[in-house]
Design goal:
This protein is mainly α. Helix content is about 80%, strand content about 0%. The chain has helices spanning about 1-30, 35-55, 65-80, 90-100, 105-125, 135-145, 150-175.
Length: about 180
């Protein structure tokens, strides 16, 4: 259990940074290079700790697969950015998302991404419940509706959490 906790600390720190990136993107439509580089750094720490513990199987860490997933998502993000479907920050955020996902989780991630994108589309198209438009989140959703710019980091981070959370829950339950 101690190895599981020690190996998970960098991932937990990265999760907090991913949530920070999603929140800042929701508020400002921006993801800083510093945030992306911090996430890549947390992945390096995570990989070093897991490899030092000799627990790469338990954490599902296969470095070439993680690098390949990060590269594939970065290229995908770059293409979407060039097509003006994504912001540059969203495209950059794809790399650390891929690093933490790894190759085997790309398909479940794509499915969750589609689900959360549909939820976001509905949230932006359907009217807000009575009184919700007076909250900070409601006012921001109205602003997003008017601008037509979507904070994709929110969707990407939600899909990332939905994809990796079952594995972490199983790991901590001791199965």
């Amino acid at each position: 259990m101690a190895q599981t906790l020690l190996g998970s600390l960098p991932s937990i720190a990265a999760l907090l940074f991913f949530l920070h990136a999603a929140w800042v993107d929701f508020l400002t439509w921006k993801i800083s290079n510093r945030t992306v580089l911090t996430l890549v750094g947390w992945f390096a720490v995570h990989a070093a700790v897991v490899l030092a513990l000799g627990a790469s199987e338990g954490f599902g860490l296969f470095l070439p697969g993680s690098l390949a997933a990060g590269g594939l998502l970065l290229v995908t993000g770059f293409v979407l950015w060039k097509l003006r479907l994504f912001g540059a920050g969203d495209a950059k955020l794809m790399f650390p998302v891929g690093l933490f996902l790894g190759w085997p989780h790309l398909l479940p991630y794509a499915i969750w991404l589609a689900i959360f994108a549909l939820i976001a589309l509905l949230a932006l198209k359907l009217p807000l419940p009575a009184g919700a438009s007076m909250t900070m989140a409601g006012m921001r959703i109205d602003e997003i509706r008017r601008s037509g710019k979507v904070p994709y980091a929110v969707i990407m981070v939600a899909a990332l959490i939905a994809t990796i959370m079952p594995e972490y829950m199983e790991m901590f339950s001791g199965r």
